[in-house]
Design goal:
By secondary structure, the chain is mostly beta strands. Helix content is 8%, strand content 38%.
Length: 455
């Protein structure tokens, strides 16, 4: 009897939430300032909706923000509330700022079906519980062109922190085509893609193209997943906050245009004595693909460092199932580490000669402190780590054609005859491979990012 009552209460609660959620519409081309936000009478401007107080939300009772401040309701009678969706139809929205909008439930800004809302930039500051879906964001939409960070999710000392924001399925670029750019144009015009502060942030399935730095994350406890960073002139990914996961992202095609030491992924610590005097804890790098350059004739090619983390200390990191193909010595490098493990990665040289070939290494901090409690195992690539690092079941790649299906096409699945099959240790090995195939699939764990299987 009680189970039936509880089930009925749950169903009624879900139905109540569904009833309360509402849909609103904005149309820059067909909308009106006198619209009511309905499908038939959409508003014209997203920024006007925000500035006119049409979103019921919360803000700080006083500024500047201090820890422990109370939130107070803002725009109590506004039509848009937590749980609602604002559908954006095709057209140009300009540069949009959302500031001090702390929602009780998630408000979604999404491209309407078959629509392409275009933004010059998106800046969310000191806010929470927002989901952004399907926008096209590019500096080339603005007149005049302005070099900037295209998506900025910002904690602000005066306005307050940001948390629980998701940006997904967005196309982000400086311009749509950089094929004719010179080094000077890359250096002077390329925007940064994402700058992400805060806590519990999610950056998922975005396409970031033709940028300087791709996705830079100072946020903690966050997820950066399934993104593409293609054609960049700085670092592809940066992770400086604790306990964040970067998984199944693809970073490829680096353009060398200045003195920056370009990395597919980079991290460093900051402490009381500056860079290298702190700790970055609990980062997971899983299943990412980093490629120096797909096209051997790409102009402005440089030597990309793969996963380059040079100013530890890095604590409790997991680096597993990544594929790194670069023309540099640093394939995967952690300098200054405690209790980190580098497992089942495939690290290849993209071309013969120097710089390179790339290595997999956990080594001492720049201050001389040796690594502690670290493991490097089951990797395909050159392993060269400091004294005290456990190195188990790793294998150099002497003949790629004897190991991989099509290394010239960046297909590093194992051949059925590869000596790497069943050659790994099961201790601390990831349960899944780069394709999320269960490990082991035979008598033992395979080396590298991919587990061979009959299918």
């Amino acid at each position: 009897m009680w189970r039936k009552v509880i089930a009925a209460v749950v169903v009624m609660s879900v139905w109540s939430l569904c009833v309360q959620a509402a849909d609103f519409y904005i149309d820059p081309e067909q909308g009106s300032v006198e619209g009511d936000g309905s499908a038939s009478h959409p508003w014209r401007s997203l920024q006007a909706v925000i500035d006119k107080g049409l979103i019921q939300t919360y803000t700080w009772a006083q500024l500047p923000y201090k820890a422990g401040c109370a939130l107070v309701q803002r725009n109590a009678d506004a039509p848009i509330q937590g749980g609602d969706t604002i559908w954006l139809r095709s057209g140009y929205y300009g540069q949009v700022l959302i500031d001090r909008h702390y929602n009780t439930d998630t408000i979604t800004l999404a491209a309407a079906p078959k629509c392409r809302p275009r933004f010059a930039g998106l800046h969310i500051r000191s806010s929470s519980n927002w989901t952004i879906k399907g926008l096209t964001i590019s500096a080339e939409f603005a007149e005049p062109y302005k070099r900037q960070t295209l998506v900025q999710l910002q904690t602000h000392g005066w306005h307050g922190p940001i948390h629980d924001v998701t940006v997904m399925n967005c196309a982000v670029s400086s311009v749509s085509d950089t094929s004719a750019w010179t080094a000077q144009e890359w250096n002077g015009m390329a925007c940064n893609g994402f700058q992400v502060d805060g806590t519990r942030m999610t950056i998922c399935a975005n396409q970031v193209r033709n940028v300087n730095f791709g996705i830079s994350v100072d946020a903690s406890h966050s997820l950066i997943q399934n993104n593409l960073v293609e054609n960049f002139s700085g670092d592809g990914l940066r992770g400086l906050g604790d306990y964040s996961t970067f998984e199944y992202n693809t970073v490829k095609n680096c353009y060398k245009v200045n003195d920056n030491h370009d990395d597919g992924f980079q991290s460093w610590s900051v402490g009381p004595d500056g860079v290298g005097s702190g700790e970055v804890k609990g980062i997971v790098l899983r299943g990412n693909t980093i490629i120096n350059s797909e096209d051997p004739d790409q102009p402005l090619q440089g030597a990309l460092q793969g996963i380059g983390c040079f100013d530890g200390t890095f604590v409790d990191w997991v680096v597993e199932n990544n594929v790194v193909v670069v023309d540099h010595w640093h394939g995967i490098t952690l300098l200054g580490a405690r209790h980190c493990r580098i497992m089942n990665n495939t690290v290849m040289d993209s071309k013969p000669g120097t710089p390179g070939p790339p290595w997999i290494k956990i080594d001492k901090h720049k201050n001389g402190t040796l690594p502690e409690g670290c493991v490097v195992a089951n990797n395909l690539g050159i392993v060269s780590s400091a004294r005290g690092v456990a190195q188990e079941n790793n294998m150099n790649i002497e003949d790629p054609l004897a190991l991989f299906v099509a290394p010239d096409r960046f297909d590093f699945h194992l051949l059925s005859t590869a000596s790497a099959i069943d050659a790994g240790t099961s201790k601390d090995a990831p349960e899944l491979d780069r394709d999320r195939i269960k490990r082991p699939h035979g008598r033992g764990v395979d080396l590298g990012a991919y587990e061979w299987h009959a299918d």
